[in-house]
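Hi support team,

I'm opening this ticket because the web form for multi-chain structure prediction keeps timing out on my end. I have pasted the exact lines I submitted so you can reproduce it. The total is 668 residues across two entries, so I didn't expect it to be a heavy job. Is there a limit I'm missing, or should I split the entries? Thanks in advance, R.K.
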Amino acid sequence: MTELLTTIISATFFFAVIRTTVPLLLAALGGLLAELSGALNVALEGMMLSAALTAVIVSASYPWWIGLLAGVLAGMALGAVMALFHLRFGADVVLVGFAINLMAAGGTVFILAQATGGDRGTSLALPSKSIPRLSLSWLGAIPGVGGTLEAALSGHSYLTWATVILVAGIWFMLYQTATGLRLRAVGEYAPAAAAAGISPDQMRALGLILSGALAALGGVQLAMFNYIGFTRDMTAGRGFIALGAVLLGARRPGGVAIAALLFGAFEALAIVLPALYTSIPGELIHSIPFVVTLVALVIYARRAQLLTRRRVAGVEGAT
Amino acid sequence: MDTRIVSRFALACLLIVTGLLAQTGLRQAAAQDDPLRVVFVVNGVLGDKSFFDSAAEGMNRMEAELGVEADILEAGYDRARWEPALAEAADSDYDIIIVGTFDMNGYLTEIAPEYPDTRFIIFDDVVDYSTGCCDNVYSIQYGTSDAAYLAGYAAAMVSETGVLGTILGAEGGPVLEFAVGFEQGAEAANPDVEVLQAVVGGANPYSDPAKGKELALAQIQQGADVIFPIAGSSGIGSLQAARDESVLAIGVDSDQAALFAETDPAQAEVIFTSVLKNVGQSLFLAVEGTIDGTTEYGTAVTLGLAEGAVDIVQDENYNEVVPEEVRTTIDELREQIANGEIEVEGAIN
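Hello R.K., no limit was hit. The queue was backed up. Here is the completed structure from your submission:
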């Protein structure tokens, strides 16, 4: 037990948690915006994957931040494609999403082969760049807690810090600006919003495009920081886990952040546990994140049920 | 509106599929009645710089040296296309159809009995002969534990901490075959050695480099100073962790140091050897044996060091990292394993 505690209460473990969380969280924030506007974005996975490849290819010949921007543009383009097919041509949003995922899975392999000259598995032939780490060594000068702060906070990727700001920024946009209110209104009940003069299509297109940009950032972090380079299908279902985090996080930025952190923490735990407890079967440890999700969803559903019941009771009491 | 788009999409799909079919049809029509027609149905695509590429190399060699006609049919990564691709190959008049990995085993078991006149070869897995289904199937497995034993011995000898790490994609037979051989070799070199074992698992055990890297970083944190990933592209992530933390690593399936030699010398440098699975060589031997009549269909073989189907890379980097007396011992061990003096316990059969 003490061994477990010393492992968990360490800067390395904290870093592992943050590394596994950030791509999930960024994609989940993307899922949140689309979901709130009323268009379920199941294409997070494909958007992450496409952005990861774009960032790797572009950063092989340009500075890292241009690679990052190119990745974001790729994600936004896919978001726009989704909006076009769903809103203009009236196709089902889930079907379009899955079409994008399929296209990304096959398309990235095709483009990878074009870019590397025939390699269809990995981007080893491309000297792609990484997002730099932000050094906060001056924290060490603070007496007392300085050393701990430096160990925990210095050396994360720029994008990790940007993610923290994005969580706050998205909260602000959603709940403090007119655009955010309109976006949520459209998602809540589109006819009412339309009657108030808001164009639901415009808001949903905005939601999907921003969703693409955020999912893309998640993919970029994965391919330019967590691992440097691209391999086929490297997102490995993170886009779908992110979608789970949106629902688990009660469709609020803070909740989504906590849900993603929960997934990240248990993922990191599943990585260190097998070495500490060799007697526990690996399969059991691997199932922990899923069990936690299930338990959390049950608790969430139960709470929602109670709230509805109370509300109903309140209404009846009033009449 | 909805239905029109769906039907248009369906039409587009249909056109693409027909186009592809027409293309393969043409390729078959172009072939004349040559002595032996061999096809390798890839459940994936070429370009993995390892497994499938090695098989393709074997195909090219048999075309050049045995005068057979060797085709390669890439079924892509969509599982739903694998069985149709195999059925398609079986319907065309090929004499020998080659498939690989346990993913194709089930499809092969279903299709092989329907084509008793066609011969099938499966590599890296064995079909279930006990059901009496597969008199026309030859199964090739690799005794990679033999070669991994040598790598494990070398790893334990060069390790300063006495802690080694293996990273498995999933706990399947061929992957465990590497792992158990590695452990036995490591223990032969140093009885007190600790071999940490991690499993990638999850939805994509063989293509999650970020997770492979996390697992390796955790093992390095726990003291491991030689990392042996057996996990496809996930393992490439583990190799990157070894590079970042400046510990040694061992490649798998093919000479993985060679992959990085030009683009990432720092990465190539830490990979001091690789455990090779020489798929191309084994397929070449099997087809050559078919022509000579020595390949016994309806049976399974496990090819190890003795057959040259597995080995470890011994290049300049290896010579630099591994001390001379250890290298000599390893060469002796290879002899002893090949002639049966040392028996390495495998995970398959």
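A quick check on our side: The first strand of chain B starts at residue 37 and ends at 42. Let us know if the file doesn't open in your viewer.
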